[in-house]
């Protein structure tokens, strides 16, 4: 009989920080029976971010891991690259499988560089993935293939349930019923995507408006949902004028990105991290651009954002 994962072998070791746990005793290339799948889902709901070490997976196997946690969906950036002339599977930018993204700092010749058409070696500021689509991914899986040696690219995660819980009462009141508009014109490194013009007005931002506080469909808890921090007009509070919107966003971002809410990971080859985009944000430090760093990412299929705001009764 083929080897399968066993629930008794699973160990979930919390980081001791505001979020995250390491899961030991599992090889995700093997089949996981129902009880293992349930235990993993519970560990994810309890810890928000899970780290699995020494995993060796093909893209198909990575997508099978995504299936444990709810399935997979394509990245919002993929169409921009295809529109700009990249052929899936032919370069390191656009993977063959539509639901795999390649997160790397290699150029077309496979050399590490500072800047690519994607995020390259850049620092990535705090964000949640693909908040600029109508149905954002529930989570993300990132598997490392090549990592720099003492070359940066550390990734941090923060707990946005705690960010909401600890928000001062006056700020909680101020955000009630409000929404942020989310922008897909730039990538996570803040660079405009291929073929995109810089926005000049709020109307140029075509992404969806999501509630500032969302309810997690599994835990039922409320989390702050800020998406990405961009200058006006890319990110704005729909119900406020520009000055009030800027002032409120500045206060929220300052509160949501405090050190006490975060856990940081320094990658080794074979590390797989699963994070929850509904209740965490993440950031990455700059990568030493003389060293290669290659990871593959899959997005966990999302469900429509559940607003913490009661629907306004029809007049
Ligand atoms: C991502 C991301 C962080 C990293 O792939 O969504 O933010 O460490 N990556 O590369
Ligand atoms: Mn990201």
Summarize this, please?
The chain is of the alpha+beta class. Helices cover 18% and strands 23% of the residues.
Question: Can you offer a commentary on this structure?
Answer:
- The chain has helices at 34-47, 59-68, 78-83, 160-165, 169-175, 242-256, and strands at 11-14, 21-24, 49-52, 72-73, 100-104, 124-127, 139-146, 155-159, 179-181, 209-211, 213-215, 222-224, 236-237, 262-265, 272-276, 280-284, 294-300.
- With 315 residues, it is of the alpha+beta class.
- The chain has one domain (7-314): Double-stranded beta-helix (4-Layer Sandwich).
- Strands 1, 2, 3, 4, 5, 7, 15 and 17 form an 8-stranded mixed β-sheet that branches. A 4-stranded antiparallel β-sheet has the order 6-16-8-14.
- Strand 2 (21-24), helix 1 (34-47) and strand 3 (49-52) form a beta-alpha-beta unit.
- It starts with 10 loop residues before the first strand and ends in a 15-residue tail after the last strand.
- The structure holds N-oxalylglycine (OGA) and manganese (II) ion.
For the record, give the distance between the C-alpha atoms at the N and C termini, rounded to a whole number.
Answer: 64 Å
What's the CATH H-level superfamily name?
A: Clavaminate synthase-like
Query: Could you say what the CATH architecture is?
Result: 4-Layer Sandwich
CATH fold group: Double-stranded beta-helix
% residues in beta strands: 15-25%
Labels describing this entry:
single chain, 315 residues, alpha+beta, Double-stranded beta-helix, 8-stranded mixed sheet, 4-stranded antiparallel sheet, 17 strands, 23% strand, globular, binds N-oxalylglycine, binds manganese (II) ion
């Amino acid at each position: 009989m083929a080897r399968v994962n066993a629930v008794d072998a699973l160990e979930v070791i919390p980081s001791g920080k505001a979020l995250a746990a390491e899961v030991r005793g599992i090889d995700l290339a093997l089949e996981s029976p129902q009880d293992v799948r349930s235990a993993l889902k519970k560990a994810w709901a309890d810890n928000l971010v899970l780290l699995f070490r020494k995993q060796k997976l093909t893209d198909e196997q990575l997508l099978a891991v995504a299936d444990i946690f709810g399935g997979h969906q394509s990245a919002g950036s993929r169409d921009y690259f295809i529109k700009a002339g990249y052929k899936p599977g032919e370069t390191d930018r656009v993977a063959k499988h539509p639901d795999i993204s390649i997160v790397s700092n290699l150029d077309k010749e496979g050399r590490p560089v500072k800047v690519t058409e994607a995020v390259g070696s850049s620092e990535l500021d705090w964000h949640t993935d693909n908040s600029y689509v109508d149905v954002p991914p529930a989570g993300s899986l990132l598997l490392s293939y090549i990592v720099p040696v003492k070359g940066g690219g550390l990734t941090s995660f923060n707990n946005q349930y705690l960010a909401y819980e600890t928000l001062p009462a006056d700020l909680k009141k101020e955000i009630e019923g409000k929404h942020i508009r989310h922008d897909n014109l730039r990538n996570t490194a803040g660079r405009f995507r291929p073929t995109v013009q810089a926005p000049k007005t709020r109307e140029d931002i075509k992404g969806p408006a999501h509630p500032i506080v969302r309810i997690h469909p599994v835990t039922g808890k409320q989390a702050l949902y800020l998406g990405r921090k961009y200058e006006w007009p890319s990110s704005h509070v729909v119900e406020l004028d520009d000055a009030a919107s800027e002032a409120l966003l500045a206060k929220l971002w300052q509160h949501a990105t405090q050190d006490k809410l975060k856990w940081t990971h320094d990658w080794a080859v074979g590390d797989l991290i699963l994070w929850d985009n509904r209740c965490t944000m993440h950031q990455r430090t700059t990568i030493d651009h003389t060293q290669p760093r290659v990871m593959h990412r899959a997005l966990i299929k999302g469900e429509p954002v559940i607003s913490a705001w009661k629907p306004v009764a029809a007049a």
